[in-house]
């Protein structure tokens, strides 16, 4: 029986159990980065909310690293390395970054999130294998640990990315 | 096609919001009340009492023994959680039924409503002279129209859904096109029927068109609604298909960094509250 492991908002999960399905719901302007190692069959998913943790500078609260692109992505890769994955074997997929439908909207957090992810991955020479970005759809993302398949669903459709 | 009149007639058969719940909430937000006073009131509502004891004895709260009296329970839970439990309990019928029309996951609107309530309180600093009791209640009930509509429009909803997802229409225009009316209109009518105060009714009516109102409660809840969408605490189906938030962002002169900071800082509060109620 497949077991759903829910990745909450500003949260990440790693798994090497082939029965696991990592899932995150209702991605809006947030971004899910999904990593999968087809040789060792383990994978990881993070649900990031915001591009940059430095906005929290000077605040006394400790930050949740999974909330931001700049702190969350390193966390995700380190978790894969810890499980024994080689950098070159990791397949990277990026999903989300929607915006509210209003064309005049001047806060494009979805786009800012995506740009930050691209920049971060590019700087570290990591290629994005595939992606499903933007629009004004809300997406649910599933990673099947047995196959590495990434399935996106919304109210009306379901497709692989 | 169903008429708005039909829906409003059926509202007559819906249970009005419990008087005990209304009173308990206003007591909670008045600055001087005793826990005895509050527990004496709540005791009269058995279902509510059971729900409060259920939450306080759940895994979310660390305790050394079972809590069996309201007095200790209220002490442990604190104000905001109490208000949330009261609202949830008082409207349980609408919040927990499987909603076929709008096909939300069970409790999803409730979760969203709670999030908007918590965020609204955080944003109240952008206005002066706000009554936090009213604001919190208004935010919790802003989508009540959806909850009621969900009982009536399952077929129409499929069409609305199709317009939103396949033709990129915003949710409100899609509702208008398919139903001829919208969830804010229905919500306001219900709240009026239940004798809620004008501010609370206006929030339900204008939260998606804040530019048509000069009520600060509307503006705060609309802003909070927008932030909840950005956080992803929204319904899977209509999360981003709204327009009209720019008015509020301009009014409060919010800059990109500030918006991100608000999201960063309020998201933990929202998450903690929702987690504690889920357990």
Which key features would you list for this structure?
heterodimer; A: 161 residues; alpha+beta; 60s Ribosomal Protein L30, Chain: A; five-stranded mixed beta sheet; 18% helix; globular; B: 279 residues; mainly alpha; Hypothetical protein af1432; 2 domains; 65% helix
How would you portray this structure in words?
- The complex is a heterodimer of chains A (161) and B (279).
- In chain A, the strands form two sheets. In chain A, strands 1-3-8-9-10 form a five-stranded mixed sheet, with no helix packed on it. A five-stranded mixed sheet of chain A has the order 2-5-4-6-7, with helices on one face.
- Chain A has two helices and ten strands; from the N terminus they run βββββαβαββββ.
- The mean pLDDT of chain A is 91.
- Chain A starts with a strand and ends with a strand.
- With 161 residues, chain A is α+β, with helices and mostly antiparallel strands.
- The longest helix of chain A is centred in the C-terminal third of the chain and has 15 residues, at 109-123.
- With 279 residues, chain B is mainly alpha-helical.
- Helices cover 65% and strands 0% of the residues of chain B.
- In chain B, α3 (35-42) crosses α5 and α9 packs across α15 (216-231).
- Chain B is globular, with a radius of gyration of 19 Å.
- Classes of the chains: A alpha+beta (161), B mainly alpha (279).
- At the A-B interface, β3 of A face α11, α15 and α17 of B.
């Amino acid at each position: 029986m497949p077991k759903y492991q829910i990745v909450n908002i500003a949260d990440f999960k790693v798994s090497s159990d082939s029965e696991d399905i990592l899932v995150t719901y209702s991605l809006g302007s947030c971004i899910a980065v999904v990593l999968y190692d087809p040789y060792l069959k383990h994978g990881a998913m993070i649900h990031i909310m915001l591009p940059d943790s430095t906005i929290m500078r000077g605040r006394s609260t400790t930050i949740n690293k999974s909330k931001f692109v700049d702190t969350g992505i390193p966390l995700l890769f380190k978790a894969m390395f810890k499980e024994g994955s080689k950098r070159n074997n990791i397949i990277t997929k990026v999903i989300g970054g929607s915006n509210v439908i209003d064309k005049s909207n001047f806060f494009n957090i979805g786009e800012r999130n995506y740009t930050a992810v691209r920049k971060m991955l590019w700087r570290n020479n990591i290629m994005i294998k595939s992606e499903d970005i933007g629009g004004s759809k809300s997406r649910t993302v599933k990673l099947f640990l047995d196959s590495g398949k990434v399935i996106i669903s919304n109210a009306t459709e379901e497709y692989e990315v | 096609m169903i008429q708005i009149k039909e829906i409003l007639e059926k509202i007559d058969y819906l249970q009005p919001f419990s008087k005990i719940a209304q009173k308990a909430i206003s007591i909670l937000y008045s600055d001087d009340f005793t826990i005895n006073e509050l527990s004496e009131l709540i005791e009269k509502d058995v279902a509510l009492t059971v729900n409060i004891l259920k939450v306080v004895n759940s895994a979310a709260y660390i305790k050394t023994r079972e809590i069996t009296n309201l007095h200790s329970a209220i002490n442990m839970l604190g104000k905001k959680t109490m208000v949330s439990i009261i609202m949830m309990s008082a409207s349980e019928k609408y919040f927990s039924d499987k909603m076929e029309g709008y096909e939300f996951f069970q409790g999803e609107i409730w979760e969203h409503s709670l999030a908007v309530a918590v965020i609204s309180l955080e944003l109240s600093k952008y206005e002066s002279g706000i009554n936090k009791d009213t604001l919190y209640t208004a935010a919790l009930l802003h989508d009540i129209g959806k909850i009621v509509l969900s009982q009536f429009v399952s077929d129409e909803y499929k069409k609305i859904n199709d317009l939103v997802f396949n033709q990129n229409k915003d949710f409100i225009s899609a509702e208008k096109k398919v139903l001829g009316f919208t969830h804010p209109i229905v919500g306001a009518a219900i709240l009026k029927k239940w004798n809620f105060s004008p501010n609370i009714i206006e929030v339900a009516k204008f939260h998606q068109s804040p530019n048509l109102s000069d009520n600060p409660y509307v503006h705060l809840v609309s802003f909070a609604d927008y932030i909840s969408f950005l956080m992803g605490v929204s319904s899977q189906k209509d999360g981003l298909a709204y327009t009209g938030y720019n008015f509020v962002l301009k009014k409060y002169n919010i800059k990109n960094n500030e918006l991100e900071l608000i999201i960063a800082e309020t998201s933990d509060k929202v998450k903690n509250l929702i987690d504690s109620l889920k357990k």
